[in-house]
Amino acid sequence: MAGFVNIRRDVDDKFYRYRMPVLLTKIEGKGNGIKTVVPNMSDVARALSRPPTYPTKFFGSELGAQTSVDEKNDRYIVNGAHDATRLRELLDAFIDKFVLCGSCKNPETDLIITKTELIVRDCKACGERTSVDMRHRLSTYILKNPPKKKGKKNKGGHAEAPSPSAEVNGNAGAGENGEAEGEGGSDDEMTRRIKAEASDLHTESQLVVEGWSADTSPDAVKARVAAVSAGIAGLGLAGGGDDDSEEDADSPYTQLGNWVKENPGASAVEVFKKVQELSIEKKHKAVQVLAQTLFTGEIITEIPIYLPIFQKMVTSEKHQKSLLGGIERFAGLEHPELIAVIPKILMELYQADVVEEDVVTFWGTHVSKKFVDKETSKKVRKASEPFLKWLAEAEDDEE
């Protein structure tokens, strides 16, 4: 049976309160079907008070590997052969980014998603709330799969994990001296709650600190203006959809495109507020307009900045197709020099769970004249072949 280690492995104190099982790995399969199974992922995650899917997805993101989760049979898999030492190092990184309090470095935290969709670590030790890196791909997964509330049961019928010090150390629900705390909590607990609630008032300013901004250099602004000028003029060519209308000056889509053109340095938060102001946050064509107008020649570095917008707005297959159509017009008509990086663009959107495998595969294998002319459509889809091949091979490996 595996032993236990300190959750913070940089702490040598053998009496350190917070401990977890040593992460175990098992290599299965061979050739292209080889994979690494983590047999005790549930136990490790329970000690960290996090769903086991979170560290699993973190491993996949950091290693650039496909992951698969079978919660019913308690199977957590990372494609490829990865030794235990490497995964333990990545687990340390996960703990630092998504478990430890950013203020006191105590692991007794809960993940909370604020009303502005910012993920924060709520520390039960010092009462501080510190935000996680919203640009990390795992943050996207957490927003779509938020942690369940304590005491609730998950799909498998198991109660959610207790705090890091509980169960592993046998002192669940007890104070530092082993005395149970009352339901009402102490005055210190109340103070911590007040401080925690107050921290929510600063979430918007924290978003700016987290790097939700766009490139405002003269070259980037010039490229953005040129792209938008060409793009807005042709938005009406997109056609299709039950919310399409004549693209005149009063159209909310034209207004949105013009606003992006006039505000090249707008942050993701500001852009989404403008979309809400125009009451088109649920419209699939708004997704196309943003995909066509938000980016410049530096689209690969800009996608992570604006991903939160698309993660919020892309809610159906129709939205996904409009997003791909906007990218198709952006690269195919306005920035043909970027057709070569279509696979990278698709990879960013796919790994952020913005587009699904079936949708992007169908799009990439069916030439369409809905958004661009037939020849341009062929060029874009031809360029996407390396990504589609990767998708197919990853699917074969999992099977």
TrEMBL record:
Domain of life: Eukaryota
Gene Ontology terms: cellular component: cytosol
Gene Ontology terms, MF aspect: eukaryotic initiation factor eIF2 binding; GDP-dissociation inhibitor activity; GTP binding; translation initiation factor activity
Presence of the UniProt keyword GTP-binding in the record: yes
Disordered: region residues: 139-189
Gene3D superfamilies noted in UniProt: 1.25.40.180, 2.20.25.350, 3.30.30.170
Acidic residues bias spans: 178-188
Basic residues composition-biased segments: 146-156
One GO process term, biological-process aspect: formation of cytoplasmic translation initiation complex
KW Transmembrane (keyword) present: no
SMART domains in the record: eIF2B_5, eIF5C
Domain W2: 246-399
Keywords per UniProt: GTP-binding, Initiation factor, Nucleotide-binding, Protein biosynthesis
Entry-linked InterPro entries: ARM-type_fold (IPR016024), IF2/IF5 (IPR045196), Transl_init_fac_IF2/IF5_dom (IPR002735), Transl_init_fac_IF2/IF5_N (IPR016189), Transl_init_fac_IF2/IF5_Zn-bd (IPR016190), W2_domain (IPR003307)
Entry's family note: Belongs to the eIF-2-beta/eIF-5 family.
Full protein name: Domain found in IF2B/IF5-domain-containing protein
